[in-house]
Amino acid sequence: MLSPSQIDAVVEAALAEDAPWGDLSSETLIPAERRARALLAAREPGVFAGGEVLARTFRAVDPGVEVRLLRADGERFSRGDTLAQIEGPARVLLRAERVALNLVQRMSGIATLTSRFVEAVAGTSARIVDTRKTTPGLRALERHAVRAGGGHNHRFSLSDAVMIKDNHLAALGAASPAAVTQALERLREQLPHTVHIEVEIDRLDQLDAVLEAKVDTVMLDNFSLDELREGVARIKGRAWIEASGGVDLTTVRAIAETGVEIISVGALTHSARALDLGLDFEPER
């Protein structure tokens, strides 16, 4: 779950960046007593994410702002739908508008893209997961958006699980299969039994050394479909099987049909386009 403290840390930094000494335009032009009502409008279809982020952004400027969310995170919407209603002092709405929109557009774009990947693998045993290829400072929000789109989260940070990649083994000097197995076994001995260990390989001839060490997950990186099928046949039941690399909406279905259980997709967060949402102020009644 996305916690209030995670949201508030991002919102506070973003508001300070956007108006470090106040909103010069609104505070000069708009009377302090003027109130306004605005609607969050969808200018294209998608999957909503970031409702609580939107609300807490406006309330960070003024706790008295009224925010009514008309879509829950994970709900689909059509072009022209109203997703939220915001009412409060006009200066406050104008002060928070850009930050709120930036965040909810980004999150809804990620949720929408994730939903397309999830739909593409429907009926297979594969789950779509994100990676650490996130915007610095926005990881918690972006990973929440992945979940809103029906995807799953990989490890949150370097502190959460062990993932050994080729550069780890190169830095260690583990050149032979036996040395790789021994290094992984020593690693297991030093860790609590609750820690998950994943190892990335990019060639099938690396597989036996990794399986010998009884790791929890094997990542098959940039494998062809035939190599994935062979890897699945050799690993099945001995570890979780993850595929990574070369994954997009044109390839993900075929990758899923090889029998892998996890498909990690960096594009969910590093290449998602912000969805076109707008905040439309209603004329004064």
Automatic annotation (TrEMBL):
EC number: 2.4.2.19
InterPro entries documented for this protein: Aldolase_TIM (IPR013785), NadC (IPR004393), NadC/ModD (IPR027277), Nicotinate_pribotase-like_C (IPR036068), Quinolinate_PRibosylTase_N_sf (IPR037128), Quinolinate_PRibosylTrfase_C (IPR002638), Quinolinate_PRibosylTrfase_N (IPR022412)
Keyword Transferase: yes
GO cellular component terms attached to this protein's record: cytoplasm
Residues engaged in binding substrate: R98, T131, R132, K133, R155, K165, E200, D221, S244, G245, G246, V265, G266, A267
Domain Quinolinate phosphoribosyl transferase N-terminal per the UniProt entry, residue ranges: 23-108
Keywords carried by this UniProt record: Glycosyltransferase, Pyridine nucleotide biosynthesis, Transferase
Transmembrane regions listed in the UniProt entry: none
Pathway(s) of this molecule: Cofactor biosynthesis; NAD(+) biosynthesis; nicotinate D-ribonucleotide from quinolinate: step 1/1
Catalytic activity: nicotinate beta-D-ribonucleotide + CO2 + diphosphate = quinolinate + 5-phospho-alpha-D-ribose 1-diphosphate + 2 H(+)
Gene3D superfamilies xref list: Aldolase class I, Quinolinate phosphoribosyl transferase, N-terminal domain
A GO molecular-function annotation: nicotinate-nucleotide diphosphorylase (carboxylating) activity
Every Quinolinate phosphoribosyl transferase C-terminal domain range: 110-280
A Pfam short name: QRPTase_N
GO annotation (BP), single: NAD+ biosynthetic process
Leading EC class: transferase
Keyword Cell wall biogenesis/degradation attached: no
Self-association and partners: Hexamer formed by 3 homodimers.
Family statement: Belongs to the NadC/ModD family.
Its job: Involved in the catabolism of quinolinic acid (QA).
Name of the protein this chain belongs to: Probable nicotinate-nucleotide pyrophosphorylase [carboxylating]
